[in-house]
Amino acid sequence: MGASKGKLYTKVIKEITVAARLGGGNPDGNARLRAAIAAAREANMPSDTVSRAVKKGTGELEGESYEEVTYEGYGPGGVAVMVECLTDNRNRTASDVRILFNKGGGNLGTEGAVGWMFHKKGVITVKPGPTEDQVMEKAIEAGAEDVVPQGADGFEVRTAPVDLHTVATHLESAGLPLGEQKWSFFPQTTVKLDGDNARKMLKLMDTLEDNDDVQNVHANFEIDEALMESLQ
């Protein structure tokens, strides 16, 4: 297993364990667990690995106890950054995240510093195949808020956070090919970056996402597409 796949497995296993602990081991009645298991399938995770993670969450097997922590801070150029973590040692994670912000040209803020700049949404990926009209029709029927085309990657259906599970179930039963299901944060305003700040911000995102305790990173920056390609 490559390093990146290993890291992905670690993050998905943690999410399954926490979802099962908080909402029980039955995905039919636990939207968060259902989304985590969908992510495990997308990553081709073996079913026995998924089953063990669920049992660790419900207490049938011994395992680490993770807690959810969200850190808020600023990146280069005043970019707002939210870092979602699952950790078994809050002090270690806080220290690691603070160091990464400082090294990356930003700084860690207090709770609530930037969270108000983001809206939380449910996100369901629809794989390529159906037309935009087909996805739009099924999404509206299912109670979704929006459909955003993703080019060759298909479509993104966005929902109110509590509707993720219901909408995904409806789309699946309507025959649409679904991919990832998750909750995400969308910025209400964005900061345009160029030059050195753009390069530093992308590096900060990479180093944060590379940390084992970090599950998701959200930020409100915009970078010109041509510049983005030249920096990657």
TrEMBL record:
Belongs to the TACO1 family. It comes from the Bacteria. One of its GO terms (biological process) is regulation of DNA-templated transcription. Residues 66-221 form the TACO1/YebC-like second and third domain. One of its GO terms (molecular function) is DNA binding. This is Probable transcriptional regulatory protein SAMN05443639_103493. The lineage of its organism: Bacteria, Pseudomonadati, Myxococcota, Myxococcia, Myxococcales. It is found in: Cytoplasm. Residues 3-60 form the TACO1/YebC-like N-terminal domain.
